[in-house]
Design goal:
Necessary for normal cell division and for the maintenance of normal septation. Belongs to the TRAFAC class TrmE-Era-EngA-EngB-Septin-like GTPase superfamily. EngB GTPase family. InterPro entries: G_ENGB_dom, GTP-bd, GTP-bd_ribosome_bio_YsxC, P-loop_NTPase. This is Probable GTP-binding protein EngB. Its cofactor is Mg(2+). The protein has helices at residues 36-43, 86-102, 121-132, 149-162, 183-191; strands at 7-12, 24-30, 62-66, 71-75, 106-114, 137-142, 170-174. The chain has a single domain (2-191), classed as Rossmann fold. Helix 2 runs parallel beside helix 3 (121-132). 35% of the residues are buried. The chain is an alpha/beta fold. A hairpin with a 4-residue loop joins strand 3 and strand 4. The chain has a seven-stranded mixed sheet with strand order 1-3-4-2-5-6-7, with helices on both faces. It starts with 6 loop residues before the first strand and ends with a helix. Bound molecules: guanosine-5'-diphosphate (GDP).
């Protein structure tokens, strides 16, 4: 029920601008267009919550959503697979590495991937950092409605195979914001 009460808390351009490092938060990462905003909105039963992250100038910021007094979701900045200037990439890498390594209240990392294009370089980078930071991770294969059930399951298994070197640390789930597939399962996992 507290997911429904999610609301924008603050945006941070740097780790030292993040809200107090207490309570618990789970961060969402994904390439642009992966379906991350739609996934956050679906999980929080809201239509426009995560749109904040798309305001120009906010694209490189960490966006914090408050769920209740102690719990937060964090929308991490991503970038597109189109050519991104190296300076932007470097800046992003510094941000992300610092946040994932230093943030004590960070309890887990969700890497959102379009089920039709999983495990891009961006995704592998996030999984690598999450692994180094010892974070439990969830690979969310979203837009599952774009594939037939069998093909979606096959992709899920292929991704599970690909991350089997981090078995126990990474779960892989099918999701669809459109069909609201997986909402309750993901909420249960986030609660843990
Ligand atoms: P973000 O850039 O990662 O935040 O991606 P968005 O959430 O804005 O989604 C990118 C595009 O994918 C939009 O056109 C969405 O409507 C579409 N999309 C997102 N989730 C789903 C889904 O579960 N199913 C389908 N069919 N389309 C989706």
């Amino acid at each position: 029920p507290f997911y429904q009460r999610a609301h924008f808390l603050t945006a941070a351009a740097r780790v030292d601008q993040c809200p107090a490092d207490e309570g618990r938060e789970v961060a969402f990462a994904g390439r642009s267009n992966a379906g991350k905003s739609s996934a956050i909105n679906a999980l929080c039963h809201q239509n426009a919550l995560a749109r904040t992250s798309k305001t120009p100038g906010r694209t490189q910021q960490l966006i914090f959503f408050q769920l209740d007094e102690t719990r937060r979701l964090v929308d991490l900045p991503g970038y597109g697979y189109a050519k991104v200037p190296d300076s932007v990439k470097r800046d992003w890498q510094q941000h992300m590495a610092a946040y994932l390594e230093q943030r004590s209240s960070l309890g887990g990392l969700v890497v959102v991937m379009d089920i039709r294009h999983p495990l891009a370089e961006f995704d592998r980078q996030m999984l690598h950092w999450g692994g180094r930071a010892d974070l439990p991770m969830l690979v969310l294969l979203t837009k599952a409605d774009k594939l037939k059930t069998g093909a979606a399951r096959a992709t899920q298994h292929a991704v599970e195979q690909a991350v089997s070197n981090m078995a126990g640390q990474v779960e892989v789930m099918l999701f669809s914001a459109l069909k609201r597939q997986g909402v309750e399962s993901v909420q249960r996992l986030l609660d843990r």
